Amino acid sequence: MAKQVVIDQDECLGCEVCVELCPDIFGFNADDAKAYVIDADSTDAACIEESIASCPGECISYE
Q1: Residue 63 lies in a domain
Q2: CB contact set of 46 (below 8 Å; sequence gap of 6+)
Q3: Among 2, 28, 38, 48, which is least packed by CB within 10 angstroms?
Q4: Is residue 61 in a domain?
Q5: Number of structural domains, the chain?
Q6: Is 31 exposed, middle or buried (0-12, 13-18, 19+ CB in 10 A)?
Q7: Residues 51 and 25 sit within 8 Å (Cβ to Cβ)
Q8: What is the per-residue burial (b if ≥16 Cβ within 10 Å, else e) of 2-12?
Q9: 28 φ/ψ angles, rounded to the nearest 5 degrees
Q10: 23 contacts 48 by C-beta, under 8 angstroms
């Protein structure tokens, strides 16, 4: 089974760092002020890992 990227919506701070780093993988919902995953099956592990390391809310996981 392939890895998938997930954002814990309860922990998301809405900083948009992940969206800035990986705009093809993450989007931002202005109404909820939360990031969301556009492409959960992305194979760009380097970008995802950078987003995980940069996330101040520590809400992104790659499972």
Answers
A1: no
A2: none
A3: 2
A4: no
A5: 1
A6: exposed
A7: yes
A8: eeebebeeeeb
A9: -135, 130
A10: no
- Residue 27's CATH number: 3.30.70.20
- The answer to whether residues 47 and 61 touch, using CB atoms and an 8 Å cutoff, is no
- The C-alpha atoms of residue 54 and residue 52 are separated, in whole angstroms, by 6
- Residue 40 sits in which domain range? 5-56
Helix H, strand E, coil C: the string for 6-41 is EECCCCCCCCCHHHHHCCCCEEEECCCCEEEECCCC
- CA terminus-to-terminus distance, the chain: 10
